[in-house]
Write a structure and sequence with these properties.
Length: 382
């Protein structure tokens, strides 16, 4: 199977799924092996001050490139800035090796559009490890930029970064070698890569599983203070899903948001402007809307649950009325229908937060299942 879009590491050409998965295995495992090697060397005191500096510099640049550049600036249009600063942030984002800008942005936009529903590229509802890093092994996890961020296909800086993507992480490795030799490459290149990618991936996995929900949203997003600290503010993820354009993910004084701090500092220096903020009125309105929305969703879920119960009873009754000789002809189909209806019911019970259109989609599926089952029973009975 060949699919045109994959992460930056493997999307330059159409490639077979096996080749793609092998490359991704190296991409995921390589930095982790480097981390183990680095820890062993660390215990043998084989570490130099330059290694620490290189790690801190490239980890910080890559993280800010992703959090402030790819995420808050390019994906959510959270502020405006001068072209050189914008370009610098984008190239730093490339250096983080989390995928080319277009694929990163389109996949994240798709995540917001379908968060914790069928088309979410990395929902923990499909498995915690899938949400963390398993999703990168599937080429079709990566959304089509033509669909999710077509405006950026015209952006000269983004397209330049897209074309020269591998140059920037390569440059960071070259600098590491020049400054600290192979030990510099280990810490400033590979160990840094392990920290940067896993910290970002924790937002997808941990922040949709563990933490506090300050706002009602139609997904499982959570505010997690540990990831808030590690991911430079991105761990206040429930705040972010409630107000995606807000340039500040930390919304209370104790919600430490280093990326928000950088944005605030640059704004004070006059280097960025049109910074998107959320005032108390918006917060109050969201809380009010969230309460009504949650009540509506609960009502819709209840209605769908009742509809399934009624459908199952009707199908069972029709089955009971069939002549014994004809039961065998529909038994398998009957079991499959009941199994699927039960799965949908379990899903409804498990899911506290759902989007209205996801419930409507399930409603259509249930109606179809019940209708076809009844038709079959009627045909067999005739
Ligand atoms: Zn999310
Ligand atoms: Zn976002």
């Amino acid at each position: 199977m060949s699919i045109p879009f994959g992460p930056g590491i493997a999307q330059a050409v159409y490639m077979s799924d096996r080749v793609y998965k092998t490359i991704m295995l190296g991409y995921v495992i390589g930095p982790l092996i480097a981390l183990v090697v680095a820890v062993v060397l660390l215990f043998n005191s084989y570490i130099f001050p330059e290694d620490i500096y290189l790690f801190l510099v490239f980890h910080t640049l890559g993280m800010f490139g992703v959090t402030v550049g790819f995420h808050r600036l390019l994906t959510h249009d959270g502020f405006k800035t001068f072209a050189p600063i914008r370009a610098f942030l984008i190239l730093c984002g490339c250096m983080a090796l989390e995928g080319k800008p277009l694929e990163w942005i389109s996949t994240h936009t798709k995540h917001h559009a379908h968060s914790d529903h069928d088309d979410d590229p990395h929902s923990p509802l499909a498995g915690f490890w899938h949400a963390h890093m398993g999703w990168v092994f599937h080429q079709d996890s990566f959304a089509d930029p033509k669909v999710y961020c077509p405006h950026l296909l015209e952006d000269r800086v983004v397209m330049f970064a897209q074309r020269t993507y591998f140059v920037w992480p390569a440059l960071s490795f070259v600098i590491c070698y020049a400054v600290g030799g192979w030990s510099g490459v280990l810490w400033g290149g590979l160990v840094r890569m392990a920290f940067t990618t896993h910290t970002t991936w924790c937002v997808n996995s941990i922040c949709h599983t563990f933490g506090k929900r300050d706002f009602e949203t139609t997904d499982e997003s959570r505010n997690n203070w540990i990831i808030g600290l590690l991911a430079l503010g991105e761990g206040w993820h429930n705040n972010h899903h409630a107000f995606p354009r807000n340039a500040f993910h930390g919304m209370k004084w104790y919600q430490f948001d280093l990326s928000g701090g950088l944005i605030r500092t640059l704004e004070r220096m006059g280097l960025i402007w049109d910074v998107q903020r959320v005032g108390q009125t918006m917060i109050d309105a969201h809380k009010l809307k969230g309460k009504t929305m949650h009540e509506n969703i609960m009502r819709l879920k209840q209605e769908l649950g009742d509809y399934i119960d009624q459908g199952r009873q009707e199908i069972d009754l029709m089955m009971l009325k069939l002549p014994p000789a004809k039961v065998a002809t529909v038994r398998h189909y009957h079991e499959q229908t009941m199994k699927r209806l039960a799965e949908i019911q379990i899903h409804l019970v498990k899911r506290r937060n759902m989007k209205r259109r996801a419930i409507e989609k399930r409603y259509e599926e249930v109606a179809k299942l019940i209708e076809i089952a009844k038709q079959r029973m009627t045909m067999v009975a005739a």
